[in-house]
Amino acid sequence: MSDRGRFGHKESTYERPNQPYLCGRSGLWKKSCWQGPGVGGQCGGQSECAPARIGDRWECRRPRRAGGTCAEGPMPDGTCGRCQAPCAPRRNVRTMRAHFSLVAVLALFVFLVIGIDPRASSVVGPAAVDAGHLTSVHAGFTREQGCVACHTSHAKDAGSWLLATFRTNDPSAGCVGCHDFAGPVMKAHNQEHPKRPGMGEVSCASCHVEHKGAAFKIAEVPDYACANCHQKSFDNFASGHPAFPAGYPYTRPGTIYFDHAKHLKDYFTDPKRTKGPDRDAKFAEIARHKCTACHSIENATREVKPKPYAEICAGCHTAQIVKRELVLFEPEKVTAAASVLLGLEKDGDEEAAKQRLSKLWASMARSGAEALAELVPPPAADGGKKQPADALYAGLPGQLARDAGAAWSAGRTVSASGAKPDTPGWATGENSDGNQALFYRASGHADPVMKAWIESLRAGLQDKDGKKRALAKEAMNDFLDSQTGPGACGKCHSAALRQVSAGRPGAAWGYTGPDTRPLNRYTHTKHLGLVDPDAGCTTCHELNAQSKYPKYFTSKASAPAVYESNFSGIRKETCVECHREGQVNSACQVCHTYHMPHRFNLGFRQKGGATK
Question: Hey, which of 158, 245, 285, 300 would disulfide with 304, CB 3.0 to 4.6 Å?
Fold first, then answer.
């Protein structure tokens, strides 16, 4: 036999489809048989020689299916001359992997069920079941309960442990036992998706990872966690974040009408306005150059709120408030207030109105202010409160009402009495229009009588009676008229008073409106020291003198659908100047928060899980 015949062939592998065994014959010949192993792993070929003795010689009689007669033939003693090794079938990789998995499952079963009770810490070392140290915010209150505080399977027997490996063991139920949020707790961003209302729940562990040690900040979430859901994912803020929407963040008006463009370009600049008797020229000179003349930067957060009215508005607007009188009654006319109190249309039947007024004058002549106690608009149908008589007629002297009633019943003019000219309070005689009247002058900003009347009209807008609603609407338009409305309230508060529902006076009169961007965060405090000292606030806030901002507030009907701010929208490029890779942090959580407002729904726990 040549060296090539004995040593020149490498081992080959022959595998039939779907066969769990491979021919692993090896040795000097190192060649697998072509038949391969059988299904059970036995040799599938006839590799053994079948020599036959013919006289004094041995001949090879190997079957053709096993390769046929070899050229060398048997040895003199009858043994095979090719020295082939016997078959050695071996399992393929797929079969070995399946056997290994089965062994691993059986080993786990033996360990959990037959061997060690996982609850017995004295039997098994802590490292065997310890996933790592908790963060400091969770380690304290879970100390007594241990793992059971979040993982309920730890309180069960070994069999339950085994079953837990085949089930979803989301610890979110333990999270919401302590944490609570506005809106659906387990929904993305704690709110229903407007375009995908059927979106499933999100596990807390999808973003927050525990057992990372006491110093780990579990509230901080990596950007890739956000990208798992948001289709418009990107690598960094500068190159991937979408451009800010047009007009951002001034997409909704505030509750106070203040035209920045008009004030900066006209009211604070034109000498005809700044030097008037009711103007504060010194303040106007400062305000035209410094935003901080009106806005307080101390403790500024997302908004830099204006300073109090008395500091920044009173110098020019208090005189306007005092001059705008609330006319309660006139002897020959149905005023806006009288139309609501008496249920009369201002331009209705004159004879019916005259008869109704005559009865009122007679009643006032007898009872004074008491005759007006029952003339109070009803409460709103949506829960608004009925304004008491002492709020609508606060400070009205009984004798003043009696004198007016007696004079008008007799067809005479009532003499001037009550508050002196240009002073607050109730008065009779000629009003600023030169008409006989019983009227009221406001004491200043936020006058309680003026506010009580407007709140009463707002409640009337929700009345079930259609006629009363119509009368309240017409009266409200008169009260909120920017040029003639009593107290000049409508000059600044008109839009909010029309839009905010009755029963929410704070939301209508206050400066801060509803939070329309609850998932966005921004703090002016951290940025004020970084802006250009010369440019100041205009570094980011650019005035848009061509905007149609006033239209939203001057309409007597509902506000226009499209709102335009006094300022041009902030562009992403302005933020990118600092927030870019290698400079200032630009992670998602710098500007965005995931959860709606957070609160704890339990107090400090006592031993045994009780709450005090």
Answer: 300
What is the DSSP secondary-structure string of 355-391? HHHHHHHHHHHHHGGGGGTT--PPPPTTSPPPPPHHH
Cα–Cα distance for residue pair 70/60, rounded to 1 Å: 7
Task: Encode pLDDT of 551-582 as tens digits.
Answer: 877 755 555 567 889 999 999 999 999 998 88
At 113 the three-state DSSP class reads helix
Torsion sign across C-alpha atoms 83, 88, 92, 97: negative
Residue 296: CB atoms within 10 A of its CB come to: 14
DSSP, collapsed to helix, strand or coil, labels residue 115 as helix
Q: Residue 479: count other Cβ atoms within 10 Å of its Cβ.
A: 25
Q: Could you tell me if 245 and 569 are in contact, meaning their C-beta atoms sit under 8 angstroms apart?
A: yes
> Would you say 364 and 401 are in contact if contact means Cβ atoms under 8 Å apart?
yes
For 223-241, give one letter per residue: b (16+ CB within 10 A) or e: eeebeeeeeeeeeebbeeb
CA atoms of 396 and 417, how far apart (whole Å): 12
444's CB contacts (< 8 A; 6+ apart) are: 314, 318, 321, 322, 424
Give the Cα separation of 338 and 328 in Å (integer): 6
C-alpha to C-alpha distance for 456 and 520, rounded to whole angstroms = 36
Q: Tell me which residue of 433, 359, 448 sits closest to 396, measured CA to CA.
A: 448
Cβ-based burial of 122 (10 A; exposed 0-12, middle 13-18, buried ≥19)? exposed
Cα–Cα distance measured from residue 25 to residue 42, given in angstroms and rounded to the nearest whole number? 12
Sign of CA dihedral 75, 79, 85, 89: positive
- Give the residue from 72, 47, 48 showing the smallest Cα distance to 59: 72
CB atoms inside a 10 Å sphere around CB 458: 24
Report helix, strand or coil for 418: strand
Under the phi-then-psi rule, with left for phi > 0, alpha for psi from -120 to 50, and beta for the rest, what region is 146? left
Name which of 352, 523, 331 is nearest 437 in CA terms: 331
Q: How far apart are CA 265 and CA 283, in angstroms?
A: 15
Q: For residue 23, what pLDDT is reported?
A: 57
Q: Is the peptide bond before 514 cis (omega within 30 degrees of 0)?
A: no
CA atoms of 307 and 305, how far apart (whole Å): 7
pLDDT tens string 473-512: 999 999 999 889 999 998 898 888 877 665 666 667 877 6
Cα torsion at 458, 461, 467, 471 (round to 10°)?
A: 40
| Spatial separation of the C-alpha atoms in residues 335 and 314, rounded to whole Å | 29
Q: 261-266 contacts: CB < 8 A, separation 24 or more?
A: 261/543, 261/544, 261/545, 261/547, 261/549, 261/566, 262/550, 263/287, 264/288, 264/543, 265/545
What does the pLDDT look like over 137-185, one tens digit per residue?
Answer: 888 878 788 888 888 777 666 666 667 666 667 788 888 888 888 888 8
- Report the C-alpha gap between 432 and 322 in whole angstroms: 11
What span, in angstroms and rounded, lies between the C-alpha atoms of 498 and 132? Answer: 58
Confirm whether pTM is higher than 0.70: no
Query: CA-CA distance, 598 to 190, in Å (whole number)?
Result: 10
Residue-level length of the chain: 612
Radius of gyration of the chain (CA): 45
